[in-house]
Amino acid sequence: MIKKAIDKTSQLETNLLGGVLHGGIGTFSGNPLTENEAEVIVEVWSNVADYAKEKGVNIAIEPINRYESYVCNTAQNVLDLISKTGRDNLFVHLDTFHMNIEENNFYDPIIAAGKKLKHIHITESHRGMLGEGTVNWNESFKALKEIDFEGNLVLENFSSSIPGMQQMVSLWQKSPYEAEELAIKSLQFMKNYF
Question: CA 95: distance to chain centroid?
Fold first, then answer.
């Protein structure tokens, strides 16, 4: 399945495939990731990285919150597994929504990822308007500046005004903003930091 995504990425003439590339292993047992599971992930990521390299594609792996996966919840989880592969085309994809749940702060994970950070989803703690939740934007943008971030900075907020969105992303509460207003004002919020 990942190889098909790599093929599509290559066909689209882009060089980065990002996202959750670890969520399908095992079931929620209540236990942490085992050494055996980690070995399987390292083997799969190594094979996928080799295939992607042939296609000129880099891969950015996104850690997500504990309610969706137990494999990679933090930037350090991803960095540790990447280092075990020895592959230079595996990177980190952060998401401020998941960081808000799993990381101790917003600064340290970005600094730790450094040049390995290629993609970041900018979204609020409640997926709504930037600046109206609990994400520490000062820490986030300070760290991005310090690492001289040159990757993709992608706005990822959700609005129930888009038909089907509420069901697709389990957005249980009605959004206070229409999608266009949410996007425009969130983009302006981001620009104010630059």
Answer: 4
In the annotation, is 146 catalytic? no
- Could you give the angle at which helices 137-146 and 179-193 cross, rounded to 10 degrees? 50
For residue 151 the two structure tokens come to 């990757």
For the question of whether the overall pTM of this predicted structure is more than 0.90, the answer is yes
User: Which tokens go with 34?
Assistant: 């085992």
Single out the catalytic residue among 43, 156, 180, 181.
156
Please give the single-letter amino acid code of residue 182: L
Distance separating alpha carbons of residues 81 and 189, to the nearest angstrom: 34
CA distance 80 to 129: 33
CA distance 163 to 167: 9
The SS3 of residue 152 is strand
What pLDDT does 29 receive? 78
Q: Is 124 among the residues known to form the active site?
A: no
